[in-house]
Amino acid sequence: MTRPITDLTVLVTGAGRGLGAAIARAFAREGARVAINYRNSAAAAKALASDLGPRAAAFQADVTSPDQVTAMVAAITARLGAPDVLVHNALADFAFNGEARSHLDRLTWTEIARQTETAVGGALTCLQSLHPHFATQGFGRVITIGTNLMQNPVVPYHDYTAAKGALLAFTRTAAKELGPLGVTVNMVSGGLLRTTDASAATPEAVFDIVASQTPLGHVTTPEDLADAVLFFASPWARGITGQNLIVDGGLVFG
Prior knowledge:
By secondary structure, the chain is an alpha/beta fold. The two termini are 29 Å apart. It is globular, with a radius of gyration of 17 Å. It has helices at residues 18-29, 42-52, 66-80, 109-137, 158-178, 204-213, 222-233; strands spanning 9-12, 33-38, 56-60, 85-88, 140-147, 183-190, 244-247. The protein is 43% helix and 15% strand. It has seven helices and seven strands; from the N terminus they run βαβαβαβαβαβααβ. The mean pLDDT is 93. It has one domain (5-191, 222-245): 3-Layer(aba) Sandwich (Rossmann fold), CATH 3.40.50.720.
């Protein structure tokens, strides 16, 4: 079963700003109904929804809370229709500045658990809330957001990278279980993005180094990655599930 993007309601978690906002804009540009989830960025999320027009709206929820996610999905369904697509982009607060991150000698399990709770726990709560709708219609698209640091761990983002590695495993196990329902589950993994709130702490020299080592010669933008997310939600990706597409201008392969 395939459906054009114009027929879809899309839930983007963590969409008030940064990459999530770029993903929301990409889906709105292609005619989808867009639910903009936010935890704390109320003003930014509501401004984005207003900018995108009547087929978009902002919804508050902490994705690690099953009760909040259930209430959010009910509100989205009433306003825009039940979500057919989940883009799980939400990220626990994180600054991409290697000099400020904990190295192994002082890293705590709490740091890893905090990132994993949002990355994997948030994906789980959202999937569980959307599962009845997916099963009823025999269709669904799930796209998780990963990182190329799993292939190229050049900075000590141990907590963040471990959580994204766990999310990739969850993406693949979910793809196996949900496939018979007509649901595809895939990951899109970016590198350092120029520029989001999270990467604003990255020194400019790091962006220059990444650009110099990238075959395409520039740092990936949120818009570059957002367009790849669109692909997995489109009819052209109907035969793909359990995959991890790296979108970083060719910086890493595999």
